[in-house]
Queue: 2 jobs
Job 1
Amino acid sequence: MLNIAFIAHDRKKDEMVNFITAYEPVFEGHKLYSTGTTGKRIMDNTKLEIHRFMSGPLGGDQQIGAMVAENKMDLIIFLRDPLMAQPHEPDIIALLRLCDVQGIPVATNIATAELLVRALDRGDFAWRELVHKYKPEA
């Protein structure tokens, strides 16, 4: 079971809901997290249970980032809107930086999300269990 987070900017929420709905069976059996509104929209349209953090601009990105910093997140699907300035852009950049530091796969568009979810479905994320098992504590 992996810890997976979903984040979507406002103009990407419909795309996220459609994507998660299409791959709902793949996400069953995993521990799912999301920022507030995105998680609510996904739960309203699927049977998935999602732990919802605050809305992204109110600190939800940072809450997910805290899990990443502690190496407690395995995969993030973050559908960003590259054409709209975000008031919490520093939080977004910090989250992406943490993913790079910890080696957490993160998809920022639907094409990459599709590749990662197909890998998840094939079982290609077994290496994350080894990371959890053998990563030295700081």
Job 2
Amino acid sequence: MANKEQKIVKKFESITKAAVPKPKIAKNCVLAFLVGGAICTIAQIFQFILVKYGSPEEEARGVVSIIMILLGALLTGVGIYDKIAAFGGAGTVVPITGFSNAIVSPAMEFKKEGFVFGVASKMFTIAGPVLVYGIGSSVIVGIIYFLIQRFMG
């Protein structure tokens, strides 16, 4: 009986493999590059404008980050960011707008459960691990840098 089941499973796997569309890796990479580059270009334009109108460059960087987070949240809230992400793929994940989207999307999805048990508890379900591992790895790199500077520098 096991032999018959194995044949059925193999046949199913071959049918499934034939039916799954092949990813267009080159096209996806180009679209990700273009969309991610467009997002970064928009941020750079905001920085040029802020510096042109008298904002110090260090301050402008912080303000641009805030503007891009706000834009990412707004575009997620009105459903546009998801369409951009469907087109640009990973190009929308890497910039700071992707982080904003990762916070806002779960919060919107669980808002019907209330502000405490819905929005507040679910908004970091996607971004939480990124924060934990990002902060953790930066601490480890900082310790290694400190030790190298202390004992070799």
